[in-house]
């Protein structure tokens, strides 16, 4: 596949988003990522962004993240995964259906 240059217009009103947790859902024709900011010391999180993409784009995202992580670790050192713990994966989401 040939690479091409893409000009991206980033509006000045677009604010950066910080997320420290992500929920992933999928169905036959899309993957949906809900980026959350979990508030430390509480059982609350605020949804910051919801992004849906096709399965083909999700596969491409996986490849791009894998390469980016490899490059990052070559430059800054290996990232140790967090210790396995019994995480509460039950999340109640209000205002999104």
Question: What topology emerges from the helices and strands here?
Answer:
Elements (H helix, E strand, L loop, with lengths): L20 E7 L2 E9 L6 E9 L1 H22 L21
Antiparallel strand pairs: 1-2, 2-3
Describe the structure.
This protein is α+β, with helices and mostly antiparallel strands and 97 residues long. Helix content is 23%, strand content 26%. It has one helix at 55-76; strands spanning 21-27, 30-38, 45-53. Strand 1 and strand 2 (30-38) form a beta hairpin. The mean pLDDT is 88.
The percent range for helix content is: 10-25%
- Beta-sheet strand percentage? 25-35%
Low-confidence stretches: none
The CATH first-level class of one domain comes to Mainly Beta
Radius of gyration using CA atoms only: 17 Å
Spatial strand arrangement across the major sheet: 1-2-3
